[in-house]
Write a structure and sequence with these properties.
Blueprint (H helix, E strand, L loop, with lengths): L8 H10 L1 H26 L5 E7 L4 E7 L2 E6 L3 E4 L3 E5 L4 E6 L7 H4 L2 H5 L6 H13 L4 E9 L2 E11 L8 E8 L4 E9 L2 E11 L14 E4 L17 E4 L4
Parallel strand pairs: 6-12
Antiparallel strand pairs: 1-2, 1-11, 2-3, 3-4, 4-5, 5-6, 7-8, 8-9, 9-10, 10-11, 12-13
Length: 249
C-alpha cells in the first residue's frame, strides 16, 4: 500500500528543524492571511452592488452610504462626499462644495482620502479599509479572531485584528471590522491611523437609491477647482474658479 504525502518533503523537513511550535505558528499565520483575504475579497466585490446603507457613528449621529455603480456617495451631518466617473465632490456643513475632475474615474484610495474632510473622521470608506486589511494580512505577528454577528438585520462576518504594525502606523494597533454576506461594510471599531479612531455600525440596508445623493445638497455653492483641498473652499478668484449656486428644490 502506497501512502501519499500530504505535505511536500521540504515543508516536513523544515518543520522538523524548527519544531512543532514554529510549524503551528506558520499554520496560524496562513490561517490569518486566509481569513483577512476572504473578508477583503467580499468587501471588494461589493462595488458592483446598488444599495443604500444607513449607519450610526460613534457619537450617535447618522451617516449614509449610497452606491449605484459607477457612482458612490457618503453623507453625514458634517458634509457629503460623491465620486462619479467624471467628478469628485466634497461638501462641508456650510453649504459649500468643491468639485474636481476624477482623475481615476473610480471611487478608490486616491480620492477616498478626501472622505474625512467631507463627512468627518468617524467613518472609514471601503477603499481605505481594503488597504488596512492588506496591512493586517501581511503582518506575521498580528492576531486575528473571527466571529459572526447580526448587524442592522444583516448577518455579518467579523474579524478582530490586533498587534498590527506597518510603516504608516509603526505603533501596534488594532481594529474590528464586520462585512455582510454581500460584502457591505456593517461595522468598524478601532484605530485608523495615528491619532484617529473610528466607530460605526449598520442600522439599515436597502437595495434602492435616491439619485439626488450623487449631487450637491440643495442650496449649496459649488466651486469647480483643479484639485480638492481638505478644507472649506476659498472664495473664487476671477478666471480661476467657477462657482455655481445649486437651486433649492
Amino acid at each position: 500500500m502506497v501512502m501519499r504525502l500530504r505535505y511536500p518533503v521540504a515543508v516536513i523537513a523544515t518543520a522538523m528543524m524548527l519544531g512543532c511550535g514554529m510549524f503551528g505558528q506558520m499554520r496560524q499565520t496562513a490561517d490569518n492571511i486566509s481569513a483577512v483575504g476572504d473578508l477583503a475579497r467580499k468587501l471588494q466585490d461589493s462595488d458592483k452592488l446598488t444599495y443604500t446603507a444607513d449607519y450610526r457613528l460613534g457619537d450617535g449621529s447618522p451617516a449614509t452610504v449610497t452606491q449605484q455603480p459607477p457612482n458612490a456617495a457618503i453623507a453625514s451631518r458634517s458634509g457629503r462626499f460623491v465620486a462619479t466617473p467624471r467628478t469628485v465632490l466634497v461638501c462641508g456643513a456650510q453649504n459649500s462644495c468643491q468639485s474636481a475632475l476624477n482623475r481615476t474615474g473610480e471611487f478608490d484610495l486616491t480620492n477616498a482620502d478626501l472622505v474625512p474632510a467631507a463627512v468627518g473622521g468617524a467613518f472609514v470608506p471601503a477603499p481605505t479599509l481594503l488597504t488596512m486589511l492588506g496591512s493586517g494580512a501581511v503582518n506575521s505577528d498580528a492576531t486575528v479572531v473571527r466571529s459572526s454577528r447580526t448587524i442592522g438585520g444583516q448577518r455579518s462576518t467579523c474579524l478582530k485584528i490586533s498587534g498590527i504594525r506597518n510603516d504608516d502606523h509603526p505603533d501596534r494597533h488594532a481594529f474590528s471590522v464586520c462585512v455582510t454576506g454581500d460584502g457591505v461594510l456593517s461595522a468598524f471599531d478601532g484605530d485608523v491611523d495615528r491619532g484617529r479612531a473610528a466607530h460605526f455600525e449598520l442600522t439599515g440596508y436597502r437595495t434602492t437609491v435616491d439619485p439626488q445623493a450623487f449631487g450637491p445638497p440643495p442650496g449649496s455653492r459649488v466651486s469647480n477647482v483643479d484639485r480638492i483641498q481638505p478644507t472649506e473652499p476659498a472664495p473664487a478668484a476671477p478666471g480661476s474658479i467657477d462657482q455655481v449656486q445649486v437651486p433649492n428644490t
